Amino acid sequence: MRNKPNFKINMPEINAYILIIGIMSIMLLAYNLYLGGLFFFGFIYIVFHNWRIANFRKKEWNKYIQNLSLDMDETTKKAIMNLPIPLCILEFDGNINWYNNKFYEMTGSPDLLGENIDNIIQNLDLRKVLNENKEMYTDVEYKNRKYTVVYNVIKNEQNNKAKYLMMLYWLDKTEYLDLRQRYEDNKNAIMLIQVDGYDEVLKSAPEEKRSLITVELERIFAAVFENELKGAIKKTSQDKYVFFTREKELRKLQENKFAILDTIRNINCENTLPVTISIGVGRDGDSLYEDLQRANGALDLALGRGGDQAVVKTKDKFEFYGGKSKAVEKTTKVKSRLIGYALKEVISQSNNIYIMGHKYPDLDAMGAAVGIFDICKSCGKSAHIVLDDVNDSIEEFVKRVKKQEYYKGVFVTCEDAIKNCNKDTVVIVVDTHRPSYTECQELLNIAKKVIVIDHHRRGVEFIKDTVLLFHEIYVSSTCEMVTELIQYLEEDVKINKLTAEGLLAGINLDTKFFAFKTGVRTFEAASYLKKIGADTVETKMLFKSNVEDFIARADIIKNTKIINKRICIAYSESEISNINVVIAKAADELLNIKNVEASFILGHKNDTVFISARSLGQINVHVLMEKLGGGGHIDIAGAQLKNVTLNQAYKQVHQIIEEYLEEENQ
Q: At which positions is Mn(2+) 2 bound (predicted)?
C-alpha cells in the first residue's frame, strides 16, 4: 500500500517579509516619489517596531529564565536539605564543606563544618576513592548503626577553575541487616551423633559400671544440647542420637570448637578405652531433608577420619573440629570375612581386572596390589597392576617380581590400561581413596565397577559409587587388610612367597617395624605371613638404601629447626630421585630427639614439593597436612604441592605449625 504524499508549507520568517516590503518600497520610489516615500517611511517604522518588540521579548525571556533558575536552585537546596538520607560534602583533604539535616541528626554534633571526617567516623578510605575517581561503596558502623556509604566525586566550575568535591550518601541498613541476621539465626540445622566403638568401650569397663557410661553420656547431652543450646535431642539407637537446633546455637558450638568432644572424652567409669563421639552437622540447606542428607555425609566423613570429631557440611565446604584421638582397633573380624567373600564374588564374575595404588607408590601400595593379584589368580582370573614409573622405594621389590615367571605380564602402563578398559572392567584401588591420587584416574571414569581398599583417614575427596568399599582407618596398613582377606579365603587362595614378603614389607613400612599404629591384629597378620613363607631377612633387604640417601638424610637432620621445643621442621636441598623416601626416613629419625612430638620434612623433585609429617600421637599431623591438600593418619601423614618453590612450601608449612600452636594456647 502506497503512502499518501505529505505536503507541508513552510512560512518564511518575519524578517523576510520586512525585507520584501523594503524592496517593494524602493521600487515604488522609482515610479512615484510621494507614494514610494510614504511606503519607505512605513518600512522604517516596521523595522524599528520589530527591533523594539524583539528586544523586549529577549529581556522578558532572560528574566523568566533567571527567575526559573532561582526557583530551581531554591527547590534543589530545600530538597537536599530535606533529603531523607544523611548527606555530606567533603573537600579532598577530608574536611566537611557542607551537610544536611539528616547527617546532623546522625552525628548529633552541631558544629561539623571544617571538621575532618576521619575525626568523626573511622574506616573511610578516601584516598582510594580519589584514585578510582568513580562512584564507590563501603560499609561502616557508627553509633551502633550500620551504613553503606556511597562516594561520588563531583566537579564544580568556579571562575574558570575546576574544583573537585566528594559527596557521601549514608544509607542506613541496620534494620535490614538485623532482620537478615534474625533469619539466619533461626535457620534449622541437624546434627547426627554416634558413639565411637560403643560395644568395645562398654566391654573395656567393669560390668557393673557399663550402665553408668550410658547415663553419663545422656546427662552431658541433656545439659549441653537441651539446656544450653535450647534444642531437641532424640536417641535413635543405643549409640546414635539426632539433635535439632538453630544456626545461632550451632555457632556457639563452633566458637568453642565443639568442646563437648573433650567433655565426653573425660568420662571415666573405669573404662580402659576412651569414650568418644563423632558428630555430623548439616546446615544451610533449602529444606530439612537437604540438611539431613548433609548431616549423614558429614557423619560418614567424621567416622572415616577416625571419629572423635565433628564435621560441619554446608553447600560448598566442610569444616572440621577435634580429631585428637586415635581410632580404636576393632576386635571382631566379621567385616573382613564379609568383604573377603564379596571380593571373591566380584572377581569371579569379571574377566578384565586392573589393580592400582597411588602415585609414587610405596611398599604398602605395591605389596597390597600384589596380594590382590594373587587372590585374582587363585580365582582363575587374570589381573594386571597399573604402574607407570618405578621409584627407589619399590624398585627392588618390582625387580624381584619381574624376575619370577609367576608374575609374568603383571605390570601394565596407564596408556595400555586405558586402551583395554571398558565399562565391564573391575578396577581395584589400594592404599588410597582419592581419585586424583590414583596411578591412573582415567580408569575410574571408564569402568563401572570400582573397589576401594584403604586405611587412610578419609578426606573430602573420595571415590564415589564403589561396588565394594573396605575402608578401615584403625588398621596399620593396607597390606594388613589384604592379609586378613587372604586369611578368610585361605582354602581357595594360594599366596606366593614373594607376595607374602611384599605384604609383610608393607606392614613394616607403615608401622615403622611395629612401633606405630600397631594392634593385636597387626601381629596376627604378620604371624600369618611368616607362617606361609615370608622371610624376614629378605623383607628387610627391601628397605636398603644407598649412600647418597644417608648423606641427604644427614644434611636434613643437621639443618633442622625446632619450633617451641616440640616440633621439628627441615628441608632437603638435594634433588634426588627418591626424595620422598629420604624425607620420610628423616622425619622418623627426628622423633628420636628428646621432647620432640612431631616432625615435618620437605623435599622437591621436578615441579613437585613432597612433605612428610610424623607424630608421636599428641599432634594430629593428618589435620595439618589436610590444609595443604594432603592427608594420612593422626601420626603419619604427607602432602604434595605442585608448581611452588621449596622456599614457598617451607613458609606454608611453618605458618600452619604456628597457627596450630596459637590455637592450642587459646
A: 364, 431, 455, 510
Sign of the CA dihedral running 79, 84, 85, 87: positive
- Which H or E element spans position 152? strand 145-158
Instruction: Write the pLDDT tens digit of every residue in 168-182.
Output: 888 999 999 989 888
How many domains does the chain fold into? 5
Predicted TM-score (pTM) of this structure: 0.65
- Residue whose grid cell is 594360594: 494
pLDDT band at 429 (very low <50, low <70, confident <90, very high): very high
In a domain, residue 327? The reply is no
Q: Grid coordinates standing for 454?
A: 584403604
Distance CA 274, CA 308 (A): 10
The 8-class DSSP code of residue 225 comes to: I
Residue 493: all three cell numbers together: 587362595
Q: Are residues 96 and 236 in the same domain?
A: no
Query: How far, in Å, CA of 599 to CA of 613, rounded?
Result: 6
Domain that holds residue 164: 87-177
Higher pLDDT, 53 or 480: 480
Average pLDDT on 498-522 reads: 88
One-character DSSP codes across 262-328: HHHHT--SS-SSPP-EEEEEEES-SSHHHHHHHHHHHHHHHHHTTSSEEEEE-SS-EEEEE--SPPP
Residues 55 and 191 in one domain: no
Q: What confidence tens digit (pLDDT) does each residue in 635-665 have?
A: 888 888 888 888 899 999 999 998 888 877 7
Residues 537 and 431 both lie in one domain: yes
List the grid coordinates of 548.
647418597
Asked if residue 329 belongs to a domain, the reply is no
Domain at 338, CATH number: 3.90.1640.10
The partner residues of 579 in beta bridges, in order of sequence, read none
Taking 3-state DSSP, the helix, strand and coil percentages for the chain, each rounded to the nearest 5, stand at 45, 20, 30
- CATH of residue 598: 3.10.310.30
pLDDT of residue 196: 87
Is residue 603 scored above 50 in pLDDT? yes
- Note whether residue 1 is domain-resident: no
The CATH number linked to 192 is 3.30.70.270
- CATH number of 109's domain: 3.30.450.20
The angle formed by the CA atoms of residues 119, 124 and 130, to the nearest 5 degrees, is 115
Tell me how far apart the alpha carbons of residues 221 and 279 are, in angstroms, rounded to a whole number.
Answer: 12
Rounded CA gap, 58 and 64, in Å? 10
Per the prediction, the chain carries an average pLDDT of: 83
**Domain limit, last residue, from 81, 98, 130:** 81
> Do 19 and 53 reside in the same domain of the chain?
yes
- Do the Cβ atoms of 298 and 328 come closer than 8 Å? no
pLDDT at 372: 93
User: Which residues are within 8 A (CB) of 19 and not within 5 positions of it... i.e. 6 or more apart?
Assistant: none
Q: Which of 489, 509, 541 is the last residue of a domain?
A: 541
**Residue 198 and residue 161 share a domain:** no
Please give the angle made by the CA atoms of 126, 127 and 133, to the nearest 5 degrees. 90
DSSP codes, 28-87 = HHHH-HHHHHHHHHHHHHHHHHHHHHHHHHHHHHHHHHHHHHHHHHHHHHHHHHT-SS-E
Q: Are residues 489 and 456 in the same domain?
A: yes
* Residue percentage of the chain with pLDDT more than 90: 20
In a shared domain, residues 77 and 99: no
pLDDT for position 661: 86
Strand, coil or helix: what is 555? Answer: helix
Residues 300 and 158 in one domain: no
The contacts of residue 530 (CB under 8 Å, 6+ apart) are 504, 536
Is 2 contained in some domain? no
pLDDT band of residue 330 (cuts 50, 70, 90) is low
Given a contact cutoff of 8 angstroms between Cβ atoms, the answer to whether 292 and 190 are in contact is yes
